[in-house]
Design a protein that fits this description.
Helix content is about 40%, strand content about 15%. The protein contains eleven helices and eight strands.
Length: about 260
């Protein structure tokens, strides 16, 4: 595990594995997540690929970093990371909120991004929730038990104990204020018009049990030329439910760049 300093001096933690000299892959986790969400995928890739998994500002090992804890700030932090590690160009792989960050970064730094893989993505237009659902999301902030009960419902089947441990630890490490501030950010995004200008090669993945038509219509159909694939036997947490399949799809995508 290593760390770097963002422009404002905040210390952010990342894991860097695999051979240098290949195009780097930068993995971004979702809401109340951590870099560990990507572990089952990166361990399948790091023999051939350099993989960097980041704990976003306020999450995981970076949970002491000050705000703002918003999609735009998370995207700005990536510029400091790629400068520190000389990762330009790279492929950005984002899950859920991390996919929204990846889109924002590809718009802001098209020169640095050679490819995008958007997994169970939050769209650039944000997510409109009913008052009841929004209250449910907010109630999970700072309450690991509620967070884990909610997250378990995002799998296509009962997650294994080791999978539960990963999501439980990530949720427990997320301060309530960070969870709420970032929730307000990713649900209220308004840059779909800019996302439509992305010309970076893009792959969008959605679990068959996670309303894949939403990802197709709100993300894949917005980004011109984006490829879209539905992964069977998976819900929202594709990196944990189908890590071998996700890793294989990422490999195939990179080989085609």
């Amino acid at each position: 595990m290593a760390s770097f300093h963002a422009v404002d001096g905040a210390e952010l933690v990342y894991a860097d594995d695999g051979p240098h000299g290949t195009i780097p892959l930068l993995f971004l986790h979702g809401w109340q997540g951590s870099k560990e969400i990507w572990g089952p995928v990166t361990q399948r890739l790091r023999e051939r690929r350099r993989t960097i998994a980041l704990d976003l500002r306020g999450f995981g090992g970076s949970n002491a970093a000050p705000g703002p804890h918003a999609v735009e700030t998370f995207a700005d932090d990536l510029s400091a990371l790629i400068a520190a590690l000389d990762l330009d160009p790279l492929v950005v792989v984002g899950h859920s909120m991390g996919a929204a960050i990846a889109q924002r970064f590809a718009i802001d730094r098209p020169d640095a991004v050679e490819g995008l893989v958007l997994v169970s993505p939050v769209p650039a237009s944000g997510v409109s929730l009913s008052p009841k659902t929004e209250a449910l999301f907010r109630a999970t902030a700072g309450d690991p038990e509620k967070a884990n009960a909610w997250i378990a419902g995002l799998f296509s089947r009962e997650p294994a104990p080791e999978t539960r441990a990963i999501v439980r630890a990530a949720a427990a490490a997320t301060p309530a204020a960070v969870a709420l501030e970032s929730f307000d950010s990713w649900t209220r995004l308004h840059f779909a018009d800019e996302a439509a200008t992305i010309d970076t090669p893009t792959l969008v993945l959605a679990g068959a049990a996670d309303r894949p038509e939403f990802a197709r219509e709100r993300v894949a159909d917005v980004i011109a030329g984006a490829r879209f694939e539905i992964v069977p036997d998976a819900g929202h947490y594709l990196p944990l439910e189908q890590p071998a399949r996700v890793a294989a799809l990422v490999e195939r995508f990179i080989d085609g760049l």
